Amino acid sequence: MQSTRARTPWQSHDWKVKTLESIIPGGGSKLAFTCRACERKFTHTTANNRAWATSGDGTPLADEVTSRWLAQSCPGRPAKGDNKDRLTFKYPSKPVQPE
User: Fold this and answer.
1) How much is the pTM?
2) Distance (Å, rounded) from C-alpha 52 to C-alpha 63?
């Protein structure tokens, strides 16, 4: 019997999950999710059930990227604009000031 409940965008991905931290302050774990199909990456904390998009090295991406990626179903392969999105960091580095 198939479920008539629609799948969420999160459920449309084929996730590979890695534990980053077993117990973080406040309880819970920090997990890295990587979709095998589209290669999008997220970090998820179980204590507060939050997820955010990350670059390949785990750097948080801009909130706009996280919101968009969480709302979209898996495109089945890397999407056209994803490489540009992966360079849009939540906390951009500040340029070095000349002395």
Assistant:
1) 0.83
2) 8
